[in-house]
Design goal:
Number of strands: 13
Structural class: alpha/beta
Strand content: 15-25%
Radius of gyration: 22 Å
CATH superfamily of the largest domain: FAD/NAD(P)-binding domain
CATH architecture of the largest domain: 3-Layer(bba) Sandwich
Length: about 280
């Protein structure tokens, strides 16, 4: 009986999700006037305006969910260059508004925030080409890792907790459930996925309402918002900056150069005690 209930629940979930996606696609034809606030960053530049030669303590390739908070943190004590191959997410309602989430993934074009690709094992997928990375495209679910995972990774649990608070203060909130989300939650409880943990960011057994990158007004908050923590005097972000390879050397001019080659959607952080030069051609 329990197995039959689970099958019925999954079928109902699929039907509700498909209906919600269809309604979502129908809604985007209307006007959308609500756009997430632009934090008015003074350190965003188009890569074409970059100087031919400049020096930084750290160069970060990729302004996604890892690159943005890392750049913000390092800029408190060091000069940082962040290279992002896409543009800014601000002022784009296709990114900022929850109602447009499904359609945002379907946009095509060489500079569109969503880039379709096929993985090496033949799976069709999308990856981001925009400041903020996948947090500009995904469904926005936010939750903590389990304590067992943190301990197994060898991380300091206290520092991990501080990092969670640092992120949550700007980009996460608890969602207000709609009819179909409420039906999913009730269905899980009905088939025995208990206890009911209510709103929780913790990794717990049972059913819970996790955090969301969308606030209750339907506005998306992305990793790009974490750049609000940056020291604007120490950070420069270059948009539409595609890095193909980076040559580094240490010591004197006769030292051996190291060549970093990386493919699309890869990331790299370089840093030295001193300075690094960036040449733009």
């Amino acid at each position: 009986m329990t197995q039959l209930k689970i099958h019925r629940f999954l079928a109902a979930f699929a039907s509700c999700y498909l209906y919600a996606q269809i309604r979502q696609k129908e809604s985007v034809t209307g006007s959308v006037n609500l756009v997430a606030a632009d934090p008015q960053y003074t350190f965003l530049y188009n890569a074409t305006s970059a100087p031919l030669m400049s020096e930084y303590d750290y160069i970060i390739v990729g302004g996604g969910a890892a690159g943005c908070p890392l750049a913000a943190t390092l800029s408190q004590n060091y000069s940082v260059l962040l290279l992002e191959r896409g543009g800014s997410p601000y002022g784009d309602p296709m990114i900022s508004e929850q109602i447009n989430m499904a359609t945002d993934l379907l946009r095509e074009g060489p500079l569109s925030p969503s880039q379709a690709f096929t993985s090496e094992d033949g799976i069709l997928n999308h990856r981001a080409r925009v400041l903020g990375g996948g947090t500009c495209l995904n469904a926005g679910f936010f939750t903590h890792a389990s304590r067992a995972f943190v301990r197994a990774a060898g991380w300091d649990e206290g520092l991990v907790h501080e990092a969670y608070l640092w992120v949550e203060g700007l980009i996460t909130s608890f969602p207000q459930l709609g009819p179909w989300q409420t039906a999913v939650k009730n269905g899980l409880l009905e088939v025995g996925v208990t206890p009911d943990n209510g709103d929780s960011l913790e990794h717990v057994y049972g059913t819970k309402i996790g955090g969301s990158l969308f606030d209750r007004n339907g506005h998306r908050h992305t990793a790009a918002n974490l750049l609000q923590y940056a020291d604007p005097n120490n950070l420069r972000v270059l948009l539409f900056a595609t890095a193909h390879r980076i040559l580094t050397h240490t010591g004197n001019i006769f030292s051996t150069e190291r060549l970093y080659e990386f493919q699309e959607n890869s990331s790299l952080v370089l840093g030295v005690m001193g300075s690094m030069s960036c040449s733009c051609f």
